[in-house]
Amino acid sequence: MNMQTVVVGTSGVTVDDVIAVARADARVEISAGALDALAVARAIVDDLAARPEPVYGVSTGFGALATRHIGPDLRARLQRNIVRSHAAGMGPRVEREVVRALMFLRLKTLCSGHTGVRPETALTMAELLNARITPIVHEYGSLGCSGDLAPLSHCALTLMGEGDAEGPDGQVRPAAELLAAHGITPVELREKEGLALLNGTDGMLGMLIMAIADLQRLYTSADITAALSLEALLGTAKVLAPELHAIRPHPGQSVSAAQMAAVLKGSGLTGHFQQDEAPRVQDAYSVRCAPQVAGAGRDTVSYALVVAERELAAAVDNPVVLPETNPDGSGGEGGRVESNGNFHGAPVAYVLDFLAIAAADLGSIAERRTDRLLDKNRNHGLPPFLADDAGVDSGLMIAQYTQAALVSEMKRLAVPASVDSIPSSAMQEDHVSMGWSAARKLRTAVDALGRIIAVELYTATRAIELRHGLTPAPASTAAIAALRDAGVQGPGPDRFLAPDLAAAESFVREGKLVVAVEEVTGPLI
């Protein structure tokens, strides 16, 4: 069992914390300071709840129904009802890691001391995570404004011991049974707690953080495969010289160029383009401009990480509890509850869409290099489609078809979700972010990108091995050897290709390509 522990305090959590809880089942603890902050904020809510004046989220209805004052005898029912009615998701189940990130990030906001939930409610959510009980959350139900309402409501439903959830054994059972089996007492919600459990951008943020982690690995992998393609095409590495990239000082561009140069160091293939019957003056854009395209994407990922880290430091809820502070910054007496619009997902939605655009372009340029390697009129002496006996064998012809289909899918997924908005709640919520939708399509795009890079890797390594009499770079040799050790076969007669492509995809997705190359180049980023 994974014994890593993540401590949630009042100041938020880190990207690594989210990944650890979502993907590695790290245990969660709440700091003493956070428990104190929860208690302070709850006392403010209890004080306001005892007053006759209506307070949104405490003693009123919600959304377009906020004008109705709710008496003390109906407030527990009000909080239960908002969870039950908002747990209205439909469609396929959302992945387990997404749901764990969703719950963990909501717990992070609860622990900020700005939501007004009781300490025991936050502790119970931590218990759910530690018991590896995963609520059933569905694909559709969030507009990315007023938070990821339906997804978070399904999580809150499990906290109440209602609905279905997945146990640590992967079996779906009634939530009440799972909680009882792990000695967890269902939460009986009180004033404001139902609203506080479901009013945040946690789902889209969790998916953003995991996409960033995946894209960081894929961009490094793409630098490697671009270098392998350049080498297989007998291109020139002179365009990777640092002084050329220093005069256009985009940081990602310089990183990609440097990493490609590191992979190609010591190559006996680069530069042979001048020996063609019709010498090339320069390589095609898909080869020569690889650092510019990948670098722009790297910079996009870096900006997305800035947005994610800002959001991790935020307390996203409506209304929020604002405890009074003394002039010296210490805690004062009392506080207030204020409505706000911080639940709007625009900051997260924009970068989710931006990443989908950058990823689609990286996939597009990788496919163009693959196509060039397979075309006998442009691959500088390699056999058509890298076939063993062209005509009898088709080689990698259809691997490029598959790659092209993935690129086309990524282009469709690059259409922004955040420019769309459908009014809801009787026009009270008349502009929404669609950030959840942006996150869902980005996850699909990231999966597609991994497959596209795998096809380029498969093609470029075969092409290098067909350059008989020329010695590839040591890093390239290490990548090819590791790929073959992983069960991906090299040149030869036609065979059932899908298993090789699947193995190449796993090789890329699991980071084995980067590890193999780093043994020669040293650390890559």
From TrEMBL:
Q: Under which pathway is this protein filed? A: Amino-acid degradation; L-histidine degradation into L-glutamate; N-formimidoyl-L-glutamate from L-histidine: step 1/3
Q: Where is this cross-link: 5-imidazolinone (Ala-Gly)?
A: C145-G147
Domain of life per record: Bacteria
The primary location reported for this protein is cytoplasm
The places in or outside the cell where this protein is found are:
Cytoplasm
Report residue spans for region: Disordered: 320-339
The name this protein carries in UniProt is Histidine ammonia-lyase
Its family remark reads: Belongs to the PAL/histidase family.
Provide the leader sequence positions. none
Instruction: Keywords in alphabetical order, please.
Output: Cytoplasm, Histidine metabolism, Lyase
- Give one GO molecular function term: histidine ammonia-lyase activity
**What's the catalysed reaction?**
L-histidine = trans-urocanate + NH4(+)
EC number(s) on file: 4.3.1.3
- Residues modified as 2,3-didehydroalanine (Ser): S146
Q: How is it modified after translation?
A: Contains an active site 4-methylidene-imidazol-5-one (MIO), which is formed autocatalytically by cyclization and dehydration of residues Cys-Ser-Gly.
